[in-house]
Design brief:
elongated, NAD(P)-dependent dehydrogenase (Short-subunit alcohol dehydrogenase family), Rossmann fold, three-stranded parallel beta sheet, oxidoreductase, alpha/beta, 138 residues
């Protein structure tokens, strides 16, 4: 939850909190227990904040990225077999770009999302509509 100074400002301006989670918060994956638990905590913190702060007009949401082109992706980008496994789980068959996550964050923070609070929004190229999260190690 934001610090007291931030909360005062959020309450005065009917502000918006947008946390960054992961699609890992929406299911489980192989050998990622600590990461999954941490991202699940972000999702639940968001829902609690939405409930607690809604009476002040403050909204709270989480964007849950899937596979995004960042340094974390470097480990699989040079491994064709591993990359093919990733694409098999992502209907759009590509990794997302950081700008695509930024667009989702900007939307949730905007007035266009004034009636949206307490959600975890997957931005994952369709990964969560398949049979689950990444099993890179299997």
């Amino acid at each position: 939850m934001p610090g007291r100074t931030c909360l005062v400002h959020l309450k005065e301006t009917w502000g918006s909190i947008v946390n960054i989670g992961s699609v890992s918060s929406l299911g489980s994956g192989w050998s990622h227990a600590a990461y999954n638990a941490a991202k699940g905590g972000v999702a639940n913190l968001t829902r609690s904040a939405a409930c607690d702060l809604g009476k002040f007009g403050v909204r709270a949401n989480t964007v849950a990225p899937g596979l995004i082109v960042t340094g974390m992706l470097d480990a699989i980008m040079d491994d064709d077999a591993l990359l093919e496994k990733a694409w098999d789980r992502i209907p759009l068959r590509r990794a997302g770009q950081p700008e695509e996550i930024a667009s989702a964050v900007a939307f949730l923070a905007s007035d266009e999302a004034a009636w949206i609070t307490g959600i975890v929004l997957p931005v994952d190229g369709g990964q969560t509509c398949t049979d689950g999260g990444p099993e890179w190690g299997k």
